[in-house]
Amino acid sequence: MAAHQEKKLAQERKHKPSQNDTQPSQGQWGRAWEVDWFSLASILFLLLFAPLIVYYFIMSCDQYQCSLTDPLRDLLTGNKHLSDIWNKTPTLTYRAAGIYCLWVAFQVVLYVFVPDFCHKFLPGYVGGVQEGAVTPAGVVNKYEINGLQAWIITHVLWFANAYYFHFFSPTIIFDNWIPLLWCANILGYAVSTFAMIKGYFFPTSAKDCKFTGNFFYDYMMGIEFNPRIGKWFDFKLFFNGRPGIVAWTLINLSYAAKQQELYGQVTNSMILVNVLQGIYVLDFFWNEAWYLKTIDICHDHFGWYLGWGDCVWLPYLYTLQGLYLVYHPVQLGAANAVGVLMLGLIGYYVFRVTNHQKDLFRRTDGNCRIWGKKPEYIECSYTSVDGTKYYSKLMTSGFWGWARHFNYTGDLLGSLAYCLACGFAHILPYFYIIYMTILLTHRCVRDEHRCSSKYGKDWKRYTAAVPYRLIPGLF
Ligand code: NDP
């Protein structure tokens, strides 16, 4: 695969601009160098309120049976004071700190010290040492892709404990959920602060650092592009996938175990949430090498947005459906359960096929078949910071001819299915689809802004050929 990617890079026909080359019309690409007031306001808002939002959601399940309005009503009517709610909130415990340290240390060991063996026996799986995308400074990093293996080992141990060893209860995550939240926050802030200091004093690749001069923006959006410790411990790959995404399925299993303990059964809605989100998580690890080419890894710098987001936001808010179902065990009728399952599977199919089409197209440099035909595309060029010119292609057929981000549309359909599994009694489980719609729409705009700077007039030709972003004919 590494050789394959080298070939792909060669196929991008890299060359230094000669006198005959026309000057590139586009500007610098990569994350912003200057901060506008709107970005700054959004960043300050998130830094102040994102941790409170997470606390509010988890606290309202713990103290108000997942009602988002009851805590506010209590506070506004004077029925309760902030201090009453705070005093009822579980504090950090030694037990939770021990569990969390063991968990993170175990994932570090699996990441750093256990080279991938899955690619040796799983046909079609791409693991082991792989190359990332070329960075704005022209660096190509190598990564040890062993996330699937880490996920399998972790889950085998989890089931072995649940059914055989009984060292700890499978409800352990649910039972320590708020104390674990404090641990996740400590790690999230520690790693983001460390990444900022590292960016200033000992960056891994100084040429790929960006300083806007605005402390808050740099803290949030990161300075270093690919901070590493040693040769292999890559912050972005580790925190993006583990511990948060490996934990995602374990958290859901812990919720299912809690339902079993409380009600003597696991409802079909809990099974649907476990299965549909399990497919999504497994897909992530099966395609971990492919994720090296996604925005998080190949465009975003590592700051609080990724560091804290991966430690706290993702494991706590992406698992709200399972948490809700512990407090409200919904048993869906057969037709509704099948409907939710179909919507989830269709969403997953669109998400996977769209992503696969782009991956195949880019890997083969367009020498492939999409829906039985040769793909259509627009030739485009871009320039890295050292002035090297590269050529690339933007596909305009398959799902990529329907909309410029049809993969996001599939993701949104799947997200809606998780929420619908919880019925309509409360808004809390619908947070996920609301958040994903905002995240992916904003991501669309952010990505297109970056692509427009990167490809200049070629990007205009592309948007003229594929005019819609998410929903053909509408948006
Ligand atoms: P994409 O995989 O869509 O990658 C966008 C990049 O692809 C662009 O920057 C451009 O990069 C290239 N590209 C754009 N259009 C074309 C085209 N027509 N042909 C070929 N290449 C093209 O986006 P993401 O990295 O954001 O998302 C990857 C997946 O991850 C998505 O399915 C998304 O739904 C999912 N996701 C899930 C999240 C979650 O929290 N659950 C969060 C974020 C993403 P280049 O510079 O190489 O041209």
Automatic annotation (TrEMBL):
List the GO molecular function terms: 7-dehydrocholesterol reductase activity
- What pathway is this protein a component of? Steroid biosynthesis; cholesterol biosynthesis
Basic and acidic residues compositional bias, start-end:
1-12
Listed GO biological process terms:
brassinosteroid biosynthetic process; cholesterol biosynthetic process
Q: Name one GO cellular component term.
A: endoplasmic reticulum membrane
The UniProt transmembrane annotation reads 37-58, 92-114, 148-165, 177-197, 302-320, 332-351, 415-440
Would the keyword Transmembrane helix turn up in this protein's UniProt record? yes
Which compartments is it annotated to reside in? Endoplasmic reticulum membrane
A Pfam family recorded for this sequence: ERG4_ERG24
What chemistry does it catalyse, as a reaction equation?
cholesterol + NADP(+) = 7-dehydrocholesterol + NADPH + H(+); 7-dehydrodesmosterol + NADPH + H(+) = desmosterol + NADP(+)
Q: What class of enzyme is it?
A: oxidoreductase
Chief subcellular location: endoplasmic reticulum
Key words, A-Z: Cholesterol biosynthesis, Cholesterol metabolism, Endoplasmic reticulum, Lipid biosynthesis, Lipid metabolism, Membrane, NADP, Oxidoreductase, Steroid biosynthesis, Steroid metabolism, Sterol biosynthesis, Sterol metabolism, Transmembrane, Transmembrane helix
Name the segments for region: Disordered.
1-27
Superkingdom: Eukaryota
Give the function comment from the record.
Catalyzes the last step of the cholesterol synthesis pathway, which transforms cholesta-5,7-dien-3beta-ol (7-dehydrocholesterol,7-DHC) into cholesterol by reducing the C7-C8 double bond of its sterol core. Can also metabolize cholesta-5,7,24-trien-3beta-ol (7-dehydrodemosterol, 7-DHD) to desmosterol, which is then metabolized by the Delta(24)-sterol reductase (DHCR24) to cholesterol.
Record's protein name: 7-dehydrocholesterol reductase
Q: Tell me the classification of the organism that encodes this protein.
A: Eukaryota, Metazoa, Chordata, Craniata, Vertebrata
